[in-house]
Every structure is written in structure tokens, then in C-alpha cells.
Design a protein that fits this description.
Residues 1-30 and 32-59 have low confidence and may be disordered. The chain is elongated. It is 65% helix and 4% strand. The chain has twelve helices and three strands, in the order H-H-H-E-H-H-E-E-H-H-H-H-H-H-H. It is mainly alpha-helical. The longest helix has 25 residues, at 130-154. A hairpin with a 3-residue loop joins strand 2 (115-118) and strand 3. The relative contact order is 0.12. GO terms for molecular function: DNA binding; DNA-binding transcription factor activity. Keywords: DNA-binding, Transcription, Transcription regulation. InterPro entries: GntR_C, TF_FadR/GntR_C, Tscrpt_reg_HTH_GntR, WH-like_DNA-bd_sf, WH_DNA-bd_sf. It comes from Streptomyces sp. R44. Residues 61-128 form the HTH gntR-type domain.
Amino acid sequence: MEQGAARERATERPSPPFGDAAGRPGASVRVPEQARGTEGARGEHTHDEPVPRGPRTVQRHSVRGQVLEALRTALVGGELRPGEVYSAPALAERFGVSATPVREAMQRLAVEGAVEVVPNRGFRVTERTPRELAELAEVRALIEVPVMLRLARTIPAARWAELRPLAEATAAAAARGDRAHYAEADRAFHRAVLSLAGNEQLLAVADDLHRRSQWPLISAPALRHGVLVADAAEHTALLDALIAQDLPVVQALVREHFTGSEA
């Protein structure tokens, strides 16, 4: 692994806000124009500024949420690289907002385990290991397999059929090789399945584990196109097994889906 080299590079120079392996700025991450205006194009808030009231407070949360989702997309897509340090002001300049919502979004990512705080410098993207992903897959299986087996016994076939558009969305993203959109569609499919259990706490825990499993590995390339396509095909196969109430196949597919997609 190249952990030491990555940390050395991060120490010698700040990382660009976004970019490919050659350092070219990425073009896929944007904050909508209407959101940029609510925070200002540059600079920090000061204590002398009036506290936003009414609708502006809602807009502030909207900006932070949009920045958070953009950062998550950049992480999954590999634009934010494991081991690299990114400063809030540099990322804010990239988004065209102030550093405040960027810091707030990065603090949220730190809670989720995607980044870690580097005092006086910014945030380092966490360097994940295959063992960590294997552990996440094991925990997800322990939670989701029993739930899906129970749902397979009780949910009528027509309800499962309603989820086919979500499975097709994962297949479409996989066919394009679009890892970021595939990650979103994959989470949406699993949330829809688990939501049939009617347990909001289960949904929150499962979604957090799922998101953590999508952060990139140390120096790992994006998943190959064939792997994404095969992973998406398992969603359709799972729906077929749930409709047929084929419990052994449901169990095997869910375990295969977790271990296969994290490999």
C-alpha cells in the first residue's frame, strides 16, 4: 500500500480542490447558482454580520446540504483521493461559496468516517482498507438478510414489482459506467426494499453502513464496468427471488451482493 507516500504528498503541498489523476480540475461537481448567492462568492462570515433570519436560514441549510451531496459524489467518483488533504477555503472557491458551509459539510463527513480533521490544514480523505470494507459487508449482511427473509414471507408480489424501476435505474447507471450515479441508485433501491419493514431506525443504520461501504479504498481504481453491470443485475435477480418467495436464493443473493460489491 502507498499510505506513507500519500501522507508525504499531502504534507508537502495542499491538494487541488478536485481533479483527475493528472491534477486537472474536475467538472462534474457543481453547486447550483441560486445556492451560491445565498452564501457569497468568497470569504468567511464574521461575528459582525447579522444573523440570517426567516427564509435565509433555510437557504443556508440548503447550501450546506448541496455542498455535502457534491462532496459525497466527489468521494464516490474518486475526485477526492484517499490520503490527500483538502482545505475548506480551496473547496469553497471551487464551489463558489463561503468556507462556512464547506466546513460544516466536511464535519458531517468526518462523523460518517469519510474524512478526518487535520488541525490548521483541512480534512484528509480516509484511507480505507479491504478489511474495513469486509467488516462493513459482514455487518450489513447481519442486519439486512434477516429483514429481507422476513419481508419475502409477508410482502405481496405486486409490491416487489413496484421496485423494478429502481432496479432498472441501477442497471442504466452501471451500463454508462457512472459510478457516482450508480451509488445513488444502489442506495435508493436498498432503502426502498428495507422501508417495507416500517422501521425508521433500521433505515437510518442500514443507509449509514451502505454509504460507508461506498467510500473508495486506498489507491484503488474505480470499479470495472463489468463489475458494476453484474452488481446491478443482482438487484433484478433479488426482486425475482422475493416475488417467488424463494428464501434460500434471497439469502444467497443478498450475501453475494454485499461481498461482491465491496470486493
